[in-house]
Write a structure and sequence with these properties.
globular, 4-stranded antiparallel beta sheet, mainly beta
């Protein structure tokens, strides 16, 4: 059964422009020694199911996607599609993430490809909530 994709305009798909934005409060997260720490209350985008942010910069060795799934679980992934290496976005109500490219490869929460040309799996990152923070292991 095909995944219902996010609605994007042709040029958004062609140029790989993702829907997920950087956090409004850039101070809501830090990175040091292989660990990204996100203060959940400071990331208003993650307060509701389907909310998402992308973490980039600050010495982070890879782009990271963080989102609250339909079960209110915070998840983190290496933000790189297994097809062309573009960013991915969560698809609310579909229990998957989807590449922002024309081909719209989709992956389930384990990183397994559901549809599209992506040959490599999506890489989930170990993320644990503790004391109001999301601690993400970057490897």
């Amino acid at each position: 059964m095909p995944v219902k994709g996010l609605k994007r305009k042709f040029f958004q798909r062609l140029f790989g422009i993702c829907v997920t934005r950087r956090p409004v409060d850039p101070e809501c997260w830090t990175y040091s020694s292989g660990t990204a720490v996100l203060t959940v209350a400071s990331a208003a985008e993650l307060s509701a199911k389907g909310g998402a942010i992308r973490l980039e910069g600050k010495g982070l060795p890879m782009r990271v996607l963080v989102f609250r799934d339909d079960d209110s679980v915070l998840r983190a992934y290496k933000n790189k599609c297994g097809h062309k290496g573009r960013r991915v976005d969560p698809v609310p109500g579909e229990r998957c993430v989807q590449c922002c490219s024309v081909n719209a490869a989709a992956y389930d929460y384990t990183g397994t490809r559901l549809q599209g040309p992506g040959k490599k799996p999506l890489v989930p990152l170990t993320a644990k909530e503790q004391d109001g923070k999301l601690v993400i292991s970057i490897s």
